[in-house]
Amino acid sequence: MSHADAIPGLYARHAEAFDRVRGRDLFERPWLDRLVAPLQPGAHVLDLGCGSGEPIAADLIGRGFVVTGLDVSEPLVRLCRERFPAHDFHVGDMRDLSLDRTFDAIVAWHSFFHLTPEAQRAMFPRFASHAGSGGTLMFTSGPAAAVAIGEFEGEPLYHASLDPEEYRSLLSENGFVVLQHVVEDPACGGATVWLAQKA
C-alpha cells in the first residue's frame, strides 16, 4: 500500500490523537473571513476533510451557515455528528464526491493536499460541479510541485502539491477565478492558500 493510500486508515486509527492535537486557536480565521465574505447567514458550505469539526466547521456553524462535511475517517465523522447534530456529516472520500447539489462555498483546508497529484487534478471538475454560481472555493496546497512525507503518531503522512501555474490553469479550465493566493502565509502558520470564485 502506498503512503497516499494509507491516509484513510491513518486518520481512522488515530482519530482521538488528531482531535486532541488539532489546534482550536483558529489561526485560519482571516482566510475563513475571505471565504464567506460574499455569503449571507443560512448559506450552505461544504467542508471537505472536515476532521472532527473543530475548529473550522464549528466556526462556520457559529456564523450561521449550514455545513455539510465529508471525511474519510468514520471516528472523526462520528465526533462531528455528536458535536453538531443539526448539520450533515458524511463518511466518504472526496475523490468520489458526488452529492448532486451545489454549495455557496467549499473549503478543503489541510485535506486536499493528502491526495496524489493525479487525484488532485481530477478534483477540479468535482469542485466545479458542487460550486454554485458565484460560489467560493478555498484549499491549501504546497508552495511548489513536490511530494513530501511527514509523520503523525509514528506513521508516514503523505502530502503532495502541483505547480502553482497548474493550479491556476485547472481553476480557470473549470470556471473559477483566482481571488487570492498566498504562498506560505506567515500570518497563517505558513499555509499556502488558494481562494477562488466560480464565475
Give me the secondary-structure topology.
Blueprint lengths: L6 H7 L1 H7 L7 H8 L7 E5 L7 H7 L3 E6 L2 H10 L4 E4 L11 E6 L8 H14 E11 L4 E7 L2 E7 L2 H10 L2 E10 L5 E8 L1
Pfam families: Methyltransf_25
GO biological process, one term: methylation
GO molecular function: methyltransferase activity
Q: Can you characterise this structure?
A:
It comes from Rhizobium rhizophilum. GO terms for molecular function: methyltransferase activity. This is Methyltransferase domain-containing protein. InterPro entries: Methyltransf_25, SAM-dependent_MTases_sf. By secondary structure, this protein is of the alpha/beta class. It has a single domain, classed as Rossmann fold (3-Layer(aba) Sandwich), CATH 3.40.50.150. 32% of the residues lie in helices and 32% in strands. The strands form two sheets. The protein has a seven-stranded mixed sheet with strand order 3-2-1-4-5-9-8, with helices on both faces. A two-stranded antiparallel ribbon has the order 6-7. The model has no long low-confidence stretch (mean pLDDT 97).
CATH class bucket:
Alpha Beta
Principal-axis shape: globular
Give the CATH architecture: 3-Layer(aba) Sandwich
CATH fold description: Rossmann fold
List keywords for this structure.
199 residues, Rossmann fold, 9 strands, alpha/beta, seven-stranded mixed β-sheet, 7 helices
Brief account:
Helices cover 32% and strands 32% of the residues.
